[in-house]
Design a protein that fits this description.
- By secondary structure, the chain is α+β, with helices and mostly antiparallel strands.
- The protein folds into 2 domains: about 1-55, no CATH class; about 75-270, Fumarylacetoacetate hydrolase, domain 2 (Alpha-Beta Complex), CATH 3.90.850.
- The chain is built from 8 helices and 16 strands.
- The chain has helices spanning about 25-30, 35-40, 45-55, 85-90, 165-170, 175-180, 195, 225-235; strands at about 1-10, 10-20, 20-25, 75-80, 100-105, 110, 125, 130-135, 150-160, 160, 185, 190, 205-210, 210-215, 245, 270.
- Strands 3-2-1-12-9-8-15-4-5 form a 9-stranded mixed sheet, sandwiched between helices. The chain has a 3-stranded antiparallel sheet with strand order 14-13-16, with no helix packed on it.
- The longest helix has 14 residues, at about 45-55.
- About 40% of the residues are buried.
Amino acid sequence: MRLVTYLSSSGPRTAGVRDGAYIDLHQTDPELPTCMKILLGMGRAGMERVAVAIARGSPLADAKLKLLAPVPEPQKVICIGLNYADHAKESGVPAPPEPVVFSKFATAVCGHEAPIVLPSVSQAVDYEAELVAVIGVGGRNIARERALEHVAGYCVGHDVSARDWQLEKPSKQWLLGKSFDTFAPFGPELVTADEVGDAGNLHISLRLNGQTMQDSSTNQLIFPIDELVAYISQVCTLSPGDVIFTGTPPGVGFARKPPVFLKPGDVCEV
């Protein structure tokens, strides 16, 4: 299944996708919530109701809905650094012995085709294509062998990074360099885990103004999704709708010679 959050006249609402059309879930089944976080927290029973609603619901009349991020206000935006073997090689550093974890503020989240706002205080904004895992049923101290049961689905994501803030400030500013408003686009759809299948064998690429800049596969992940979920949940309780940006492959702008950074009017496609 494919799920979206769209902006209606009454606020954000959840919808399913059927043959390219959008089915409002709550309108079809009033037992289904309009909030994606609450919906994901319903677990398997909720997804079974969603499947029925998508199959029997009437498409929304407006075919050009304004799509928000599938989870517009996640409680946590968790990010993983240096998680592709080919990217670690590109960066000239050894593969880390355990996941490198940082975060973005939730205010960085934006949706499909929303503009990335280049801040006036940064001159080195970089692109990073990423696979995003979305937590369904939450938990703490999740065993690795059960971890994928807590992943509701996956999204396409873009970890936008102000490299001068992240790497060149006197004490470095990973959190702030990653957290400018609009620096965490993901979507447009949340594709449920059953439809994705093996998330560790997906093609991932990024085009900048039509030119392919990143081209790899999630089979290069140093730490796979199940290991990330188990590792992070040792520290904090994962909640429905939390998103994990799982790392980026090689080809990022700051590693190029000369470096390539985003400019006004550029178009990024992940």
